[in-house]
From TrEMBL, chains A, B:
Protein name, per record: Magnesium transporter MgtE
Sorted UniProt keywords: CBS domain, Cell membrane, Magnesium, Membrane, Metal-binding, Transmembrane, Transmembrane helix, Transport
Membrane topology: Multi-pass membrane protein
Annotated organism of origin: Sulfuricaulis limicola
Family statement: Belongs to the SLC41A transporter family.
Quaternary structure note: Homodimer.
Domain called CBS: residue spans: 142-205, 206-262
Coiled coil: none
Lineage: Bacteria, Pseudomonadati, Pseudomonadota, Gammaproteobacteria, Acidiferrobacterales
Length: 451, 451
């Protein structure tokens, strides 16, 4: 019976804490020895600085590189500081070149020199070629361990060649067929290799339609293509179709996870993933930009209200009703933007559909404004026995929801036209517009018709 | 030279629109014939209902099933309505059983019967077994096309067996080694198979440590494990370790994308992904719950203000300053929650760290409150020449940010204790608390000390 390595082991953090309390570092080492680097990373992240350093010292040096890769940058940086150059070089040597490239930004020049010195010539050239591309491109994602074959040999020869290698690079589901100038002419899937007759030639069984990535393709596009076409690996080529390397699905899965995480952090206005045990000062620094931006928009909204203080003094009910108008505007505006950003991401917004969509969003906001604004108007009347106040409430809600719909459509489209990410920051901007706009519309109408 | 199938073709929607305008359906058919089902889905989604139906009629029936799978449910439902039972059955037959299972919820009983009738006995049993598990479990994700081998045979025999099959299931990177009761005892990676000597026995080269999923494992956990352990495929087993099927990384990538999409929709309070060309009425229905919830919380906040109308009448500056206190509270509370939810998702919150974290968040909010609140206090003094008003402003900001930090920590933890998703709905709740709380604290302090 095979031993089962369960995908989830929620109590290892507890076990490690217990062993630390007992001062039994040998036991810590024993626990860690059985764990996957990803699990060790989770434990380290869950520990305060001091025990974290103790546990880190118990990690097998062969696994340190992989563990570092699994950690968010804030924690990774702290652990790297605990290691000397020789240890770092040893940890790096156990990694693939594309993974070493991911660690490089954290390392000092001395350590980098030490690592380069420790690598053999071929690996050094590989690392060099990966490092020459930005981290968020196909070139930055690729590994340089692709197996290539020529199209005129038989499968028998390919099989013998593979057997002589004794090991295949991880996630090798296809071999790349190249011509004598290293240009990609096709791919030979391992499945074909296993199921075809051995006397056939590569050219007879290879696939000539190859999904390949120019080396500067943004990583988001690579991820989208892997998802659409269910890829396991794909070649990376230069402008002349020369094979430079290959991207594997595990790296793409990491890109997807990082994208989702980045999105979550952006939404809350956090600069980077925080180390749970970071100091108060580090935490404040990570969060202050967003607080400052929101403070500025809040002060603007506050000054809009300030301009109508005379009206509020005369009819104080305005003060308690105005936040409703502003708040609901922000909510519905963000609903609109979410749908627009989605359509943009899927490349579905043509000129025609854009106009249709805009018209629809305005109509939706009109319906919402009349229905919800109508209800609020009735509520205002019931509370303050003032019919005109109710009418102003309904009118203001309707107008602000229409403003919200317009902003919700136009802000992401404008950002896109300016070459920016349509999603980032849209939410702050919409809320700013619907807050200030909502206060202005409601208090303005009230000033005109009520006081 | 191999033909290049580029990963991104942004102009196909335009080409299709042009062909439609010219009334040339043959050309539409020609464009679609070269495209991947995922790309056809993107085009269909980008078209209004009428041309969408026209284009749908030009899709090859062999691809219809895969195209349907790539569409969001709203659009999929509309297209299914355009097809008769025979066409649906034909489209389904071209799919894997796990993919047919994903389509079933959209189909009428008649069509399901027709599909079942069209399948052979083995496929019918497979479909049955996949359908008996919830869609969001390992069982719902799995396919039943795993290749199994016994441990006492030689690799030579395995190779001959594979060659006789002529085709391997997609993403076959490993074969499952089972005993005579179909219990999983190990895995034989294709890489090992290709690089080991053919006279060796499976038992000599197989991996005995198998990452496998009990059939009821939630799909989120499956996705996390695939990401952590860089898996391409993994076996699904019942409680007695019998092999039921296998999960492949392409399905996991879909789960990850759906999770990210679900999160985005939840955040904006959208029930499901909208068809861009849905009617106003359908759109309003998709969005109304969220608007209603926010309306209720806004009305509560409004009533808190209403209770202090006397104070506002006496000191109207309160009306323009109060939204700042409330707003910044919501922003910082959501920052705190984002970090807590992240730590919870990674399983890093022990009892000790929870207390430390809570203490840190309170300290961060204290610093923020004094710094930003101090600035606002000065602003209030400059605007209204009232020192006490400035002091109240600073105090209210500090207290509301501390309330925000507490809510930001406690709400996700409480939701988790109640067995709910800690992320969902937290944002609405925190904003509700910091809005009403902010108004109450600021207006309450003002009433006590200023008027």
């Amino acid at each position: 019976m095979g031993k089962t390595r369960k995908p989830k082991k929620p109590d290892h953090l507890k076990q490690v804490l217990a062993a630390l309390e007992a001062g039994d570092t040998a036991q810590v080492r024993g626990i860690l020895a059985d764990l996957h680097p990803a699990d060790i990373a989770r434990i380290l992240e869950g520990l305060p600085p001091e025990p974290r350093a103790t546990v880190w010292a118990q990690v097998d040096i062969q696994h340190m590189g992989e563990v570092l890769l699994e950690l968010p940058e804030a924690v990774r940086g702290d652990l790297v500081k605990l290691m000397d150059g020789a240890a770092l070089a040893a940890a790096a040597r156990a990694l693939d070149t594309d993974d070493i490239a991911d660690l490089i930004p954290e390392l000092s020049d001395d350590v980098i020199a030490e690592i380069l010195f420790a690598l053999d010539k071929q690996d050094r050239q590989r690392l060099d070629s990966v490092l020459s591309y930005a981290e968020d491109t196909a070139g930055g994602l690729m590994n340089v361990d692709a197996i290539t074959v020529r199209e005129n040999i038989t499968l028998e020869v390919v099989l013998r060649y593979l057997r002589r290698r004794e090991e295949l690079p991880e996630h090798t589901n296809q071999l790349f067929v190249v011509d004598r100038d290293d240009r990609v002419v096709g791919i030979l899937s391992v499945a074909k290799l296993l199921t075809s007759d051995a006397w056939m030639r590569v050219s007879q069984v290879m696939e000539r339609e190859v999904i390949k990535f120019p080396v500067l393709t943004p990583d988001k596009e690579v991820a989208a293509a892997f998802e659409r076409y269910n890829l396991i690996s794909a070649p990376v080529v230069d402008e002349n179709n020369h094979l430079l390397g290959r991207i594997t699905v595990d790296d793409v899965v990491d890109v997807m996870r990082e994208q989702a995480e980045r999105e979550r952090l952006d939404r809350a206005g956090l600069r980077e993933a925080e180390d749970m045990f970071a100091s108060v000062w580090q935490t404040v620094r990570n969060r202050w930009t967003w607080v400052a931006i929101n403070l500025v928009t809040a002060i603007i909204a506050s000054r809009v209200i300030g301009a109508f203080e005379d009206s509020i003094e005369k009819l104080v009910a305005l003060a308690s009703l105005m936040p409703i108008v502003a708040g609901i505007g922000g909510n519905t505006g963000n609903q609109t933007t979410t749908m627009i950003v989605r359509a943009l991401a899927l490349g579905q917004l043509s000129e025609t559909s854009m106009r249709a969509l805009f018209a629809k969003e305005i109509r939706v906001s009109l319906v919402n404004g009349l229905v919800w604004g109508g209800l609020l108007g009735i509520m205002a009347y019931v509370l303050y026995h003032n019919i005109s106040l109710g009418v102003v409430m309904t009118a203001a809600m309707t107008l602000n929801l229409m403003l919200a719909a317009s902003a919700g459509v136009l802000i992401p489209l404008t950002r896109l036209k300016l070459g920016r990410d349509p999603a980032r920051g849209s939410s702050v901007l919409i809320t700013a517009i619907t807050d200030s706009g909502g206060f202005f519309i409601f208090l303005g109408l009230a000033t005109l018709f009520l006081v």
